[in-house]
Write the structure tokens for this entry.
Amino acid sequence: MRPGALAADRRAARRPVSRDVRLFWWAGASDALGTQTSGVVLPLLLLGLGHSAATVGVVAGVSTAAGLLLAPLAAVPADRGARKPVMFWSATVSALAMAGVTAAVATGEPPLALVLGAVLVERFSTAVYEAAAAGTVALLAPPEECPRVVAGLSAGEQGALILGPALGGALYQAARALPFLADALSYAVAAGCVRALRSDLRPDSPHSASTGATPKEVDGKDVARPGPVRRMGKEFGAGLALVRTSPLLRLVLAWTATVNGVIVALYYGAVFTLQRGGHGGAPMGLVLAVSGAAGLVGSLAAPRVVGRIGAARLLVAVSWLLVPLAAGLATARGPWAYGALFGMFCLLMPLVAVVLQSRALQATPPSLQARTGAVLASAVGGSAALAPVLAGLFVTRAGTAAPAVVCAGALAVLAWHTTVVRSRLTEATA
């Protein structure tokens, strides 16, 4: 990173954030806290209603798949200028869905169809919100402040990971409906924060990216406007085309999708190992708490660390450091060993994640922020959804150490690839 860029980053770190940025932080932190609060007890609710573990898995899988399918479609209207209304109404619908779950649970034992329907509506709406929110940072903050804002959003998510499960468990002990009421209120807070934003969140040139929506002229004759299905396909494909042609965005996709899939696989590998060792749910709670706390520290420290080391060097160093940590999990057996190794993993990962997210925002035109973000989020979500399946398969076929060994190999390949293409991040930083 050049000295001028370092100085700009230090000045940005001392500058107070704007009112709209603070509101966006509160919306994201409230949403994340509510999701963690209700998400940790939803399996307990379904099991308490007499449903099997397989049913719980189906509910989780279907809701995850629903979000992955819908998010890219919602990104198109967001990029076309409807980002703020889409965010507000999706948060409002999520609040109403969770309020429905609260009422159903409070009045007795709700049928599975009702719970599943409300969860799907909430998951659909949340996916829409996340797709529309992608790229909002670039519209609220100048480029030199993006790393600090992204770090703040990441810190809010990590803080929710620490507080949410504990809060959900305590509320569930008091009354089964309370965690879902808390989630509904968190969505209401997010909707209020979005509504209070003074920025309209529209890109300066919403039609700056060519998407096939404007008729062209060939040999002096107008060519007919393409049909709605074809036009929607071009609209949706614009984000994918940008990722495919941008070396920096391809690096962001490869790194985030691989590392997020690896950490999910390692987590499930730890669950299987601790379960076979006779440990209960408390040790995994310890692992999650330590990981969340380490992730919070890493997120908060990211802008300062990047300013001292430089983005490209930090990317390569962290990529290689993750390899021995994953390999060490192959020999871990007790919860304290898992907590220490996961804590180091989650401390290092946000340092790079914040850098890559902020650079991706700066490299993406305003009119393609949501669609590009949806492509990246779909890749991360797909790897996270596939990771538990592969972890279970490796444990069944090759033993509890297999997921960590395979993940260490995948991280070694990623580290080598990152070392080769580090110049792309250097160019983006410059």
In short: The radius of gyration is 22 Å.
